[in-house]
Each structure stands twice: as structure tokens, then as C-alpha cells.
Amino acid sequence: MATENQRTAPSAQRGLSFIDPPALMRIKNLQMRAKVIVEGFYAGIHRSPYHGFSVEFSEYRQYSPGDDLRYLDWRLLARTDRHYVKRFEDETNLLCYLLVDTSRSMAFQAGGVSKHEYARTLAATMGYFLYLQRDAVGLAVFDEVIREYLPPRRRAGHLRHLMAALQRQPDGMGTNVAEPLEQVARSVKKRGLVVLISDLIAPTDLLKRQVAYLRSRGHEMIILRVLDPAELAFSFDDARIFHDLESGKKLYIDPDVAKRKYLDAFQSHAATLSQDCKELGVELVVCPTDRPLELSLFDLLRTRLERGRTPARNDRIARRAR
């Protein structure tokens, strides 16, 4: 069922071993957890046939039409058959916003790891990784409204504040994805990368409008949709009382009767999200809570390497948003 643009880098397919998410969650300290994931990721890259990938991430960006060919790395082209140009200092320092959903629906856990625990570990891992790359990382923790906000910083001590903000337990009710996206689009002047981590259990129309507005202002974006495997397959066998975490309602549901309706509605919602993101040039990746967290670093690297959209593309996106 997870068909929403769910791509991984070639090195994620072979030559690497990953840590099981439930095993990782036994590490109570969030920063230490992120450190273990990042160090394992680096070690895996250097053992794999694609060990140059991490070097390219730090020093290169993908060639775009109009770039000066004098700065094309011909040796890298010969080795990887990919076109990259050396990045200058002002291009090397990325501005990244991590937007993390902590609404009540993120507390769902059918087994293994809760969506919230997985999501905040994802954010901590990406924050730690980008901090090591000397990038500026910001954070917005939200449910119906933004509960915690940290502007992007590179200074010493910022990573500690980011980790502390991610420790927040989900205590909001519904989800309002549009507000944090709108705030980022309004307040950020310099183009950057926005990483939205959410289950996206919300209407798609407002999300599309805000994503389109954000893209029209030149920001790149990746959406990591965190879902429990049980939500993807509706793997419940017995009739039971289901508790809606956001509304508080309790419903008696017979899976034999409800499964087909649920899957039809879920797939329709997923297809709409996928199509909207495709139209807007946004990477959408489904992250079941049993998916190795290292794979999301590949998604982040690929999105960053593919930065450099042309102004014409952003103009087209702006027209779509209106």
C-alpha cells in the first residue's frame, strides 16, 4: 500500500545493515539515539559501493541548466556518471526547518513503536546529522497550533535546545498542518529546506495550498509521512472498541465489515496526497514505524542534492497556488 513516492537511494538496497527501530527506542536519551543512527549510517556508507555519497552531500550539488561548466567536477562524473558542481560557501550552509506533528493521533501504537516516538527520533536524527554538517537547523513542534518554536541556528548549545523541545509529549487534540507551513513561508527570507514529519491525518486541501505557497517562495520540501503498519493494512482481526485519540469518541467496529471501507478511504486520501505532492515537486515518503530510520537520511540527502530548481519552475508553482 505504501506507494507514495517511496524511493530510497541505491545504497539503501544493498551493502548496508540497519538497526531495528524498537531496539533503538531502548536508548532513552534522544540525542544519544540520534548519534547511534547517524554513526551507523556513516559507517554503512563507507562500507558500501556508494561511499562517495556522503562526500558529495557535503561538497557538491546537482548540476542545473545554466550552471558554469567550469565548476563541473569531471572526475566525479567519470566515477559516478552523475553531474555535480562544486558548491560555494554560501551554498554549502543549508537552512533547514524540521516541522514535527505532536497531535494526539501521533500517540497511536498498535505494536512496536508509537508514531510520536518514531517521528521525534526522525527529527532528532536529522537535526543531529545537519548539525554535524554545520547547517542551520530550526524546529517547529505543533498540533492545532505551534507549541514550540526554535529558529535555525548553528551556534553551540542549539542542538541541546532542539533535543529538549522534541521531548514534548503529544497533548494537543486535532492536527493543523497548515499553520506551521504558513508561518515558515512568511518568516523565512532565505531559501531553505522544509522537512514535515506527520501522519497527515488531516484534510488535504489546506495542506496543498500552504505547500504550494511555500514552494512558490523557493523552498525545497520533503514530507515524511509516519504511519503505524496497522494503519496501512488495517490488520485487526477481532471486533473491538476503537478510541479516537483526537476527538475522544469511542466506536465499536467489526473489522470484517469496516476493513474494505477503511482501506478505500485511506487509499483515496493517500492518492490525493501523492498527486498533490507530485504536482508541486515535493518528495513524499511513507515511513512505517518499522522502517529503519537510516533510510530517511538517504531521502534527506537526495532532496538536498536535488536542490537548485529554476525560477521558472517556482513561478509555475506560484500560479498553481493562486
From TrEMBL:
<dbReference type="InterPro" id="IPR002881">
    <property type="entry name" value="DUF58"/>
</dbReference>
<protein>
    <recommendedName>
        <fullName>DUF58 domain-containing protein</fullName>
    </recommendedName>
</protein>
<dbReference type="Pfam" id="PF01882">
    <property type="entry name" value="DUF58"/>
</dbReference>
<dbReference type="InterPro" id="IPR036465">
    <property type="entry name" value="vWFA_dom_sf"/>
</dbReference>
<feature type="domain" description="DUF58">
    <location>
        <begin position="59"/>
        <end position="262"/>
    </location>
</feature>
